[in-house]
Amino acid sequence: MDLKELYQEIILDHGKNPRNKKKCDGFNKDAKGNNPLCGDKVHVFLKLNDEKQVEDISFEGEGCAISIASASIMTEIVKGKDYNVAKKILENFINMLKEGSKPSINSLSDNENTTIMSLSGVKQFPMRVKCATLAWHTFLHAAEDNKKVVNTEK
Amino acid sequence: MDIKEIKSKFPIFSNKVKGKKLVYLDSANSSQKPKVVIDRISNFYSKEFSNVGRSMHSLAVTATNRFEETRDLIKNFINAKFREEIVFTKNATEGINLIASTYGEKFIQDKDEIIITELEHHANYVPWHFLRKKKGAVIKFAECDKQGEVNIDSIKKLITTKTKLIAVTHVSNVTGTILPLNKIIDLAKTKKIPVLIDGCQGASHLKLDVQKLDCDFYVMSCHKMYGPTGVGVLYAKKKWLDELPPYQGGGGMIDEVKKDDISFPESPTKFEAGTLQTAEIVGFAESIRFIENIGIKNITQHEKEITEYGLEILKKNNSVSIIGDPKERSAILSFTIKGIHPHDIATILDDDGVAIRAGHHCCQILHEKMGIPATARASLGIYNSKEDIDILNESINKCNKIFNN
Ligand SMILES: Cc1ncc(COP(=O)(O)O)c(C=O)c1O
């Protein structure tokens, strides 16, 4: 287990200077997520247009570097993508963290791939996987109008 | 006192964590177990085990004697007046639930008031919340200040003729504050209000004398006292145990069972339904002997010394803020590091073999009050030394390095 793999520059950067950390204008969907054991909280705001494309996405919340960085990265990656594509990325991402499978996401640019892979070190820290997946699950709830608060303990 | 020698009695410290020496600073969560306790449980299962109190055979007699011996040891350990005042539960949480449920059933009516403090662990809030839902009880929170102190006046001003119980912690599991129990209980006595003490962070750290203290209820979790998991103790004055209805129903807690009615025996039997954690309760006797061999005063003294050293070292570290500054502090230090979330601290410390806890420590009310979502907590046991604090401090510096602070 290597701390350097967990706290990569990209993650530290997103943790300290999260992108899209605000309530975005004109959002039409939102959802909340909690990690009750840790106290991490996230609120995802989503603007999904009629073509089911993620026109805009943002988040608010508080938590550790991993959860904030992951939320920030998530917003960057899914913004502008079709919902179905975003969902596929999300599934791949979660499998990568839970099962250690290599993500095979051909819809990502090299740059996006590097960014998302910066979170792959989390899989070596099982206690932190929940931090990294919280915002992604919450995005899914928002998109699917699931009004239940995401709870990592359920 | 030879701490190295005492520490050598805990097998866990002979293992490495990630190739590093274990620096265990999470005893407020649960303490490690000395070999005598582990061996006792194993020996009991190998040589003496059977269920207690139900059979006539000689194994049952031995097991029952050993089991009841623990009750006597606890009685002496906390200086209770009667052995019947010691009720076994599964943990402190169950002890509080037992009182909330039975005392609540008998004595709490709509609009009756229960006073707790903003420092309480969820275990000393949620059970009262159930009474709020079920019976319309009102829960009042005595304020804690920025130092983590609960002033006696903040309790005094909440007392009315409707106050039916005061339930407070002995020691805060976040700020380490030792509450002014004598003052609180004296005040309550003048108004004839019973007092429950959540002793989770008191027992095994501070000398206990429940008769002198004169509290009505005191709950403990044995796993925080160098003892096995699954065992708790509820101390209650005999007059309460005589008066309160049974808690759970089942085998062992009955007097006579007829088709149209059931009668119940006296305490503690009345409150101990079903088969208990026999081996663990027998094993806990060794934890008490272990504590008494060292001497509770020596434990308090040693932990105080390390706590003070910890405060001194961490206060010198500019990146660290310590949560609360109570005048009387037990063996707990919670802190934050500027710009680094406590979970990240815990992960980085863990890489150095330093085990702490990060989060809200089941005290969301307190964290909200302090305006911080989470803290990192170092908590001590008899096995900790100044060296552990030094390693903690170095590891904190590593956090800053990783985060380019
Ligand atoms: C002050 C306090 N009360 C109650 C508890 C609950 O203890 P248990 O989970 O063993 O019942 C704890 C332990 O975390 C505690 O620190």
Structure report:
The complex is a heterodimer of chains A (154) and B (405). Helices cover 43% and strands 18% of the residues of chain A. Chain A is of the alpha+beta class and 154 residues long. In chain A, a hairpin with a 5-residue loop joins strand 2 and strand 3. In chain A, helix 2 crosses helix 3 (65-78), helix 3 (65-78) runs parallel beside helix 6 and helix 4 runs antiparallel to helix 6. Chain A starts with a helix and ends with a strand. The mean pLDDT of chain A is 90. Chain B folds into 2 domains: 3-26 and 296-402, Aspartate Aminotransferase, domain 1, CATH 3.90.1150.10; 38-293, Type I PLP-dependent aspartate aminotransferase-like (Major domain) (Aspartate Aminotransferase, domain 2, 3-Layer(aba) Sandwich). Chain B is built from 14 helices and 17 strands. Classes of the chains: A alpha+beta (154), B alpha/beta (405). The A-B interface holds A 1, 3, 6-7, 12, 16, 37-41, 62-66, 125, 127-128, 131 and B 18, 339-344, 347-348, 351, 358-360, 364, 367, 373-374, 402-404. Bound molecules: pyridoxal-5'-phosphate (PLP). Pyridoxal-5'-phosphate is lined by residues 28, 91-93, 121, 123-124, 169, 173, 198, 200-201, 221, 362 of chain B.
> Remind me, CATH topology of the largest domain in chain B?
Aspartate Aminotransferase, domain 2
Query: How many domains would you count in the coordinates of chain A?
Result: 1
Poorly predicted ranges of chain B: none
Can you count the beta strands of chain A? 4
Q: Please write the string of helix (H) and strand (E) elements of chain A.
A: HHEEEHHHHE
Please tell me what the overall shape of chain B is.
globular
Query: What is the rounded distance between the termini of chain A?
Result: 27 Å
Short description:
Chain A is α+β, with helices and mostly antiparallel strands and 154 residues long. Chain A contains 6 helices and 4 strands. Chain B has 2 domains: 3-26 and 296-402, Aspartate Aminotransferase, domain 1, CATH 3.90.1150.10; 38-293, Type I PLP-dependent aspartate aminotransferase-like (Major domain) (Aspartate Aminotransferase, domain 2, 3-Layer(aba) Sandwich), CATH 3.40.640.
